[in-house]
Design a protein that fits this description.
Length: 470
């Protein structure tokens, strides 16, 4: 192979890879066909081809950025050392390109390809049925799965505004709280009893009309916060047999196109309420004389949550993407306590848990109801990646101040089904342009929005896809 021939071949490779990154699959298909034809004119394959295919298969398991860096270094080496333009060099160029576009599984889907209306035109819309009245969903023909897009948004590299429907809760039946709280989600239908004792032995009563469970007030297990060490029996998580659910849950988790959060329904303050009832728990938190005991109990709870996180990591590894903790801090008209109390009692033990999650590669979502705008700064300080709150909060102010540090679940005023399409599209555009940036992503709270208006929902996807390309 002559120098000129190799040089032209090299330019084709460089141009093809660059065009692939910019324009995606169409350019890749055309240029790869041209490349293969050009290469076949000069040489046939040899053993060197198989060596480089193996090399790039191994490299494909590195980070995507490192993989591309190695490919571009290959280009630089060929430019800097002309004497390498020989038969082996031709094999290397062919194998590098082949490895880049084929051995790295699904590489086209991992690239931020330019938005195309076919992503919406080819969307699969699932409507509710009598058997599944909440079964509404939209699956766009997107460059990556909703699960991958959620991960990218957490890194401020998202491709579109994620929806709460793009993530699911994982609530295995082996954890006693999930049966007690009547919320088992683990890959197989659960038809057993609900309600009963949680991991601490606290009785929960299932309320069919609410489709959930409560601790019936009036008979708390803990009446004196100073005696929590004597009264509260912490669980032995090894007795749960979390490993026994792996065979049932692994296909459900592995095949999910939605982001998977393992859910802890009763965190710190809510757990204290389950021990003491609401009134005494609130007094214990606000009474300076008992705060040391509350602080110690919350710290001990964090020890337990870290053990649970470690156990989940041992059993499920990266089949789980993150953890969602429930801890309500407010009512409809304001928070239960001020930011000073939260920073003192809740932020430090929560930060221990979120730091531990992050060290293992998990994200951390806080589900906290009530009008708690004054406490959003505490959520950020505690290390939470996202906050699932209620629409009564002042989301414009919350997003403006914290949107670059916290993914906030929010929604506009509901758009009635069957609205004028142009009105729906304008409302969606205004919503996305106000509450979503690539460096300050948020989550569309589709459940709270309560709309199935396709013009509105499609425009949210389209607008956010275009924002991520700006």
């Amino acid at each position: 192979m002559s120098f000129l021939e190799s040089f032209i071949l090299l330019l084709l490779y460089a141009f093809g890879l660059s065009a692939l990154l910019v324009t995606g699959e169409i350019a890749h298909t055309i240029l790869f066909a041209v490349f293969r034809f050009f290469f076949s004119v000069f040489e046939s394959f040899s053993y060197g081809m198989y060596f480089f295919i193996l090399l790039h298969f191994l490299l494909s398991h590195c980070s995507f950025e490192l993989y591309l860096l190695i490919n571009y270094l290959s280009i630089c080496i060929l430019f800097l050392f002309p004497f390498l333009f020989c038969k082996p060099a031709g094999f290397m160029i062919e194998s590098v390109y082949t490895g880049c576009v084929s051995s790295f599984t699904g590489i086209e889907r991992r690239l931020p390809m330019a938005f195309s209306m076919k992503e919406i035109d080819n969307a699969v819309v699932t409507l509710p049925t009598p058997e599944n009245p909440r079964g509404f969903s939209i699956r766009y023909d997107s460059p990556v799965t909703p699960r991958e897009n959620f991960r990218l948004n957490l890194k401020h590299q998202g491709l579109w505004m994620p929806s709460v429907r793009d993530r699911i809760w994982f609530c295995p039946r082996e954890i006693p709280d999930n049966i007690a709280r009547a919320f088992v989600i683990d890959g197989a239908r659960y038809t057993g009893p609900v309600g009963g004792k949680d991991m601490f032995g606290i009785d929960w009563e299932y309320v069919p009309s609410a489709r959930g469970s409560i601790v019936r007030p009036g008979n708390p297990v803990l009446t004196d916060i100073t005696r929590w060490r004597e009264v509260i029996i912490f669980p032995d998580i090894e007795s749960w047999g979390l490993e026994s659910g792996l065979a049932r849950s692994e296909p459900f988790l592995k095949n999910s196109t939605a982001y998977v959060n393992l859910c802890v329904f009763t965190g710190w303050f809510e757990r204290l309420i389950s021990f003491m009832d609401f009134g005494p728990a609130a007094v214990a938190v606000m009474n300076r004389k008992t705060r040391d005991e509350v602080r110690a109990l919350f710290d001990r709870l964090s020890d337990l949550w870290i053990q649970v996180i470690d156990k989940v990591h041992d059993v499920y590894g990266n089949l789980v993407d993150g953890f969602c903790f429930h801890d309500d801090w407010g009512a409809q008209d304001g928070p239960f306590f001020n930011s000073r109390i939260v920073n003192d009692l809740l932020v430090p033990p929560m930060k221990r848990v979120t730091d531990h999650c992050h060290a293992l590669g998990y994200s951390c979502d806080l589900h906290s109801c009530g009008k708690i705008d004054r406490l959003v700064g505490c959520i950020v300080s505690a290390g939470w990646d996202s906050w699932d709150g209620m629409l009564i909060n002042d989301f414009p102010s919350d997003y403006a101040e914290y949107g670059d540090r916290l993914m906030i679940s929010l929604a506009p005023v509901s758009i009635p089904d069957g609205s004028d399409p142009e009105v729906s599209r304008l409302a969606a555009e205004d919503f996305v342009r106000t509450f979503y940036r690539k460096d300050a992503p948020s989550i569309f709270s589709a459940n709270y929005a309560g709309t199935r208006d396709l013009s509105f929902l499609h425009e949210i996807y389209r607008q956010s896809r275009m924002i991520c390309e700006e």
